[in-house]
Design brief:
By secondary structure, the chain is mainly α. It has one domain. It is built from 14 helices and no strands.
Length: 290
């Protein structure tokens, strides 16, 4: 990457962090079931991407049955992530939920070590330990506030675990396919798995007012296309570790947005434990090896 390209990529990186930080705000603004919110967020993202599908028709036709199987599994795990994490936002604060979600790269490395024997150095272990301690502190302090807040923390952690599995599938698949084909396919499988869940649960698919559809669309455009998809695109031009650092920016910006837009306050425990987690995850990513 030459020097003239550095500023635009860095600006896009900042835009991506701000975009994903709005996700929790839009979810809290909606009154629909979280599974419905997640389903339409992804289906509408697919709809926005639809005009470019024909351009990738040959790549799709060349995918094997094994590729489709892993894409489906990756999509199901992404759908589970959205279901769990969005549910956590109904029970705990934006600050607690988003900061616990930053454990994703830690879970990815643990899975990589268990499955592929990826090397883990002492500094990475130190980062994992610090981040986990911070999570325990947040959980214990939230339990003092209410049992529901603790349940929300657990749901956020399970959501981080689900998206870590999704990312591991994605890292394997992205060796053989473009970012567009991977994202469109995974979004579709995730949305469809959520549609099955909604049908089984009896959630209505229609009858939502204009403000709800506006929230669904905002989630598709802002945090999904300008956030997650943008980061996947930037992986081609920026260091993977640098892109991974975006997880540290989301809870900071999301907490500020929640304070301004949702009137949420930060307790001393949440602030201290959140900084502890962020430091641990930063230490982990900083000393991680590809």
């Amino acid at each position: 990457m030459n020097r003239t390209n550095k500023v635009p990529y860095e600006l896009l990186y900042i835009i991506g962090i701000i975009a994903i930080s709005f996700s929790s705000i839009f979810v809290r603004w909606s009154n629909a079931d979280v599974a419905v919110i997640a389903m339409y967020r992804l289906y509408l993202t697919n709809l926005l991407m639809l005009p470019l599908v024909w351009r990738y028709r040959r790549e799709w036709m060349g995918l094997s049955a094994r590729h489709w199987g892993i894409l489906a599994l990756s999509g199901i795990m992404l759908g589970l992530h959205f279901l769990l994490w969005m549910a956590s936002l109904r029970l705990t604060t934006v600050a607690s939920s988003t900061v616990i979600l930053t454990l994703e790269p830690v879970f990815v490395m643990i899975g990589s070590f268990l499955l592929f024997r990826t090397k883990v150095n002492r500094m990475m272990l130190a980062g994992i330990s610090i981040a986990m301690v911070g999570s325990i502190v947040i959980g214990s302090s939230d339990f003092q506030l209410s049992g529901d807040a603790l349940v929300g923390d657990v749901l956020s952690m399970l959501g981080a675990l689900a998206v870590a599995v999704h990312m591991m599938f994605g890292k394997h698949l992205r060796k053989d396919m473009s970012a567009f084909v991977y994202n469109f396919s995974v979004f579709f499988f995730a949305a469809t798995s959520l549609a099955v869940y909604n049908a089984a649960k009896g959630n209505p698919f229609v009858g939502y007012d204009a403000s709800e559809w506006g929230n669904f669309l905002l989630l598709a455009i802002v945090p999904t296309l300008f956030g997650h998809y943008l980061f996947n695109w930037l992986l081609k031009y920026m260091n993977t570790a640098a892109v991974s650092m975006s997880v540290l920016g989301e809870p900071v910006i999301a907490s500020v947005l929640a304070w301004v837009l949702l009137k949420e306050s930060l307790t001393a425990y949440q602030l201290g434990a959140g900084l502890f987690i962020l430091f641990g995850v930063w230490l982990f990513i900083r000393h991680g090896k590809e």
